[in-house]
Specification:
Blueprint lengths: L1 H21 L3 H23 L9 H15 L10 H14 L6 H25 L1
Helix pairs in contact: 1-2, 1-5, 2-3, 2-4, 2-5, 4-5
Length: about 130
């Protein structure tokens, strides 16, 4: 199943984000935390909807997750709405900014990604 590949990517990115944090590599931590959420969104959109795309645009994926699975179908809590954009901003700074990601920002990013990926995993397990 296609969605399982993206859920595996989400879980892998989350593991790497945790490892990067533990090793005080806060920029890669922020980047991988974002991708854990992005891939979890794709997984759950594949699981619950008819969407099948060759290319998953970042803004499109986030918008469709929020529209279809939070606002319309109410499968996920509204507290997940802003996680993608928050972590996307942190990823842009981590990957392209002149500054470095702080320990506090990285820790919060991993926590947000863990919350998101866990919500997706739990919901998929309950509906499988």
């Amino acid at each position: 199943m296609e969605w399982t590949n993206f859920l595996a990517k989400a879980q892998s990115n989350l593991r790497i984000a945790r490892l990067a944090f533990e090793n005080k590599e806060y920029d890669p931590c922020a980047s991988r935390a974002y991708y854990a959420v992005f891939h979890a969104e794709i997984a759950v959109l594949l699981f619950f909807t008819e969407l099948r795309l060759e290319y998953w645009g970042h803004n499109f994926t986030q918008a469709e997750f929020n529209r279809r699975l939070i606002r319309e179908r109410k499968i996920f809590a509204s507290e997940l709405v802003d996680i993608h954009n928050l972590l996307a901003g942190r990823r842009r700074v981590a990957d392209y900014g002149l500054g470095r990601t702080s320990e506090t920002v990285a820790r919060r990013g991993v926590a947000k990604a863990e919350t998101f990926v866990q919500a997706v995993q739990t919901t998929i397990e309950e509906k499988s």
